Amino acid sequence: MAAGLFADRRVSVPPEAQTSFFGRSFISVDQIQSSNEVNQLFEMADVMAKVTESNGVYRPLVGYGVTELFYEASTRTSLSFEAAAKRLGAKVHVRDGMGMFSSVTKGESLQDTIHAACQTTGNDLIVLRHKEDRSSEVAAKIAARYGVPIINAGSGSLEHPTQALLDLYTIKRLVGRTERLKVMMVGDLLYGRTIKSLAKLLAIMDPQVELVFASPQELAAPADFVEDISSRVGSVEETDEFLSALPEADVVYWTRVQKERFPLGQEELYDRVKDQFIFRREHIELMKEHSILMHPLPRVNEIDYAVDKDPHGAYFRQMRSGLYIRMALMHEILLGHQIVA
C-alpha cells in the first residue's frame, strides 16, 4: 500500500495561531471577551471573501470531517455551514430534520445522539441546531469527551451566535464601522434569538452603542434580557412603534413573528400581532442615506418585496456574509489564525 494512505493530513497549529476560538466549542456570544477577538475573526472572514469572490481554491480542511445535526428547519444556516465546510475541503455529513427522521423519534436523548455522531463519523466538528435553549451546552459537554467542538447554529429562543457574527460583519462591510451606531431591532423580540445575540455582540464592540427595541407589547424583549443589556450599552429605548426612530437609526434590524415558538393555544395572539409591524416601500424615505435594513430571514410578509431592490435593503447581502463568517469560524476552531500552504 502507498505510504500516503496512512499519512495524517491534519495541520499543526503553532501557539501564536491559537486564538480564543481555537479548539473550543462556540455556543454563546458571551464567550467573546473583547472586540479584538471579533476583529481577528473578521480578518479571516475577509480572506475567505477574497478567495471566494476571486473563484480561488483554498482547501486546508482536507482530511477533516464536519457533522451537521439540525433539529429545526433551516435553509440559510444549513446551506452556508455545509458550503463553508466543503469549500475548505472537509468531508461533510448533513442530518437535517433530526426531530423527524432519526432515532429521536424512538426517544433517543440529545446526549446519546452526540455520542453517536462522534463515534460513528470520526469527524472533527459538530454544527448543532436545536429547539432547546441550553442544547449546545449539553452537547458540548458530551462532545468534549471526544475532543470534538460544537458550533451552536441556533438554540431555542436564547442564542444564535454565528448569526450575530455574520450580522455584525455585514454592518462592518456596508456601514463601514461597528461603533458609534444606533441600531433599531424590530418585530418579535420575545422569542427572537438573533436580536439577543446581536445586541450582546454590539455591546462588546462598543459599550456606548444605542439600541432601540420596537415591538408589539406582547412581543417585547424579556425583562431580564433588557435589564442585562442596559448595563452593557449606552442606552436602550423600548417602544411599540418604529417610525419615530427610523430617521435616526444606522441599522434597522427587522425580524418576523415566529409562529413556531408560540405556546400551544396562542394562535389568536399570533394572528393579532403577526401583521402589526410591516416595512413598506414608503418607509425607505424616512431612513438615513447610508443606513441599512437587515433581516435574518426567512420573511413571511413583514418586509414588502418592493423594498428588495433598494440599496438600503441588505438582507440578501447579509446571507453571503454567513458563508464567509462560517468558513472563518471553522478555520479558527480547527486550524487557528494562520493561512495553511
TrEMBL record:
InterPro entries (UniProt xref): Asp/Orn_carbamoyltranf_P-bd, Asp/Orn_carbamoylTrfase, Asp/Orn_carbamoylTrfase_sf, Asp_carbamoyltransf, Asp_carbamoyltransf_Asp/Orn-bd
Catalyzed reactions per annotation: carbamoyl phosphate + L-aspartate = N-carbamoyl-L-aspartate + phosphate + H(+)
GO MF terms held by the record: amino acid binding; aspartate carbamoyltransferase activity
Matches recorded under PROSITE patterns: CARBAMOYLTRANSFERASE (PS00097)
Annotated keywords: Pyrimidine biosynthesis, Transferase
Domain Aspartate/ornithine carbamoyltransferase Asp/Orn-binding: start-end pairs: 181-331
Biological or metabolic pathway of the protein: Pyrimidine metabolism; UMP biosynthesis via de novo pathway; (S)-dihydroorotate from bicarbonate: step 2/3
Keyword Signal attributed: no
Domain of life assignment: Bacteria
PANTHER family in UniProt: ASPARTATE CARBAMOYLTRANSFERASE, ORNITHINE CARBAMOYLTRANSFERASE, MITOCHONDRIAL
Function according to Swiss-Prot or TrEMBL: Catalyzes the condensation of carbamoyl phosphate and aspartate to form carbamoyl aspartate and inorganic phosphate, the committed step in the de novo pyrimidine nucleotide biosynthesis pathway.
Family according to the record: Belongs to the aspartate/ornithine carbamoyltransferase superfamily. ATCase family.
Protein name per UniProt: Aspartate carbamoyltransferase
